[in-house]
Amino acid sequence: MSLENIPLEKIMENDLQTLIKNKVQEGKCIEYKENRPAIKDEEKKKFLIQITSFANAAGGDIIYGIREENHIPKEVLGFEISNVDEEKLRLANIIRDGVEPHIWGFNIHIISLSSGKSIIIIRIPRSFYPPHMVLFGERRFYSRGPAGVYPLDVGDLRTLFGIADATAKSIRNFRIDRLMRIKNGETPIPMLKGPTYVLHMIPFDAFSLGSNYDLSAFDEIRANALPNICWTTSNGRINFNGFVSYHGYVGTGPTSKPACSYTQLFRNGIVESAYVQYNPTKEGNVEKNIDPAYEKHIIQGIKKFLIIQTQIGISPPIAILLAILGVKGRSISRGNSEGNFLDAIPFEQDDVVLSEIVIENLDDDISKKMRPIFDIVLNAAGLKGGN
């Protein structure tokens, strides 16, 4: 038994004792260190080599504060840490400043022992944008196998660069396919016609072999199980791709009414959420122009869906992609007190398809992350960004 199937924040002292009892040997995905990490400058290089070797391989846990002999854990020792938050920040800064490109999604967990001392566990995910290079003292790449750390050669590097390219290509191709289907009306639920906001949240491991999550809980909960961008909803069901929730769709056949929004949770953890700018007081139920309040809805939606993805076991990094379809000739409403439009000009293109941002940690500031994307939408409408 290793720790990989236990959420990092739930690992306790008794789990460490179980490693010793079961003689869980060091290997590709776990390593023991007796001393506190990277105290002196000369220790930082070794620390970063260990971190990058995990990221460039299969990921895993480094446990600081356990004595080992011949790669077998023998004793939980721990060490004194006066300020846990400062220690986490110190180690995180070393990793962020000493590695290129940044490693997304690593986590640091500090366990307080009954002795009063502490253990540090750093969990490093398998990177989907390798290889990562050590910058401190040298510029080299490392990986690891069952026998431990080794430097990468040219062939290894070509393989890892190929993994990064494949991840980016899979995300891009999935998004293109889905946007084309939405424009062609191939949505999980029939939708109103009009400007359509489409949000994709794609975990980097979504296209890995075996990436298939249990979505049965959403079918059991049903009511408000999977929110839409703008509304909560009690309408939801299991479908071929996973689980879909929707707002506004009623019945089947000629008397059915199309939805104004839906959210599709795919079995590989991808969220696709779309909504039409709906206003029942308007002719055709669709607003003529783009309401800047969409920014607030998108930010709220991302926060909701991050919670959902976390509940089914997904961890960052997660790519966030926004598109607004069918906007040619429409303007962004920037009205004064009389409701007149100011300096906005009609969109020249029909579809505004925006670049991705990446959520590296669950506590990322979503508003700040999305601001450059929203500014591009404003620029496309002839407006100055930076709001």
Architecture overview:
- The chain folds into two domains: 8-152, Schlafen, AAA domain (Methyltransferase, Cobalt-precorrin-4 Transmethylase, Domain 2, 2-Layer Sandwich), CATH 3.30.950; 161-380, no CATH class.
- The chain has seven helices and 18 strands.
- It is of the alpha+beta class and 387 residues long.
- The longest helix has 30 residues, at 154-183.
- The protein starts with 12 loop residues before the first helix and ends in a 7-residue tail after the last helix.
- Helix content is 28%, strand content 23%.
- The chain has helices at 13-21, 41-55, 84-98, 154-183, 216-221, 294-311, 366-380, and strands spanning 30-33, 60-64, 66-69, 72-76, 99-100, 107-112, 118-124, 133-134, 140-145, 148-151, 196-203, 235-239, 242-247, 261-266, 271-276, 318-325, 351-353, 357-359.
- Strands 11, 12, 13, 14, 15, 16, 17 and 18 form an eight-stranded antiparallel β-sheet that branches.
- The model is unreliable at 336-341 (pLDDT under 50).
How would the blueprint of this fold be written?
Blueprint: H1 13-21, E1 30-33, H2 41-55, E2 60-64, E3 66-69, E4 72-76, H3 84-98, E5 99-100, E6 107-112, E7 118-124, E8 133-134, E9 140-145, E10 148-151, H4 154-183, E11 196-203, H5 216-221, E12 235-239, E13 242-247, E14 261-266, E15 271-276, H6 294-311, E16 318-325, E17 351-353, E18 357-359, H7 366-380
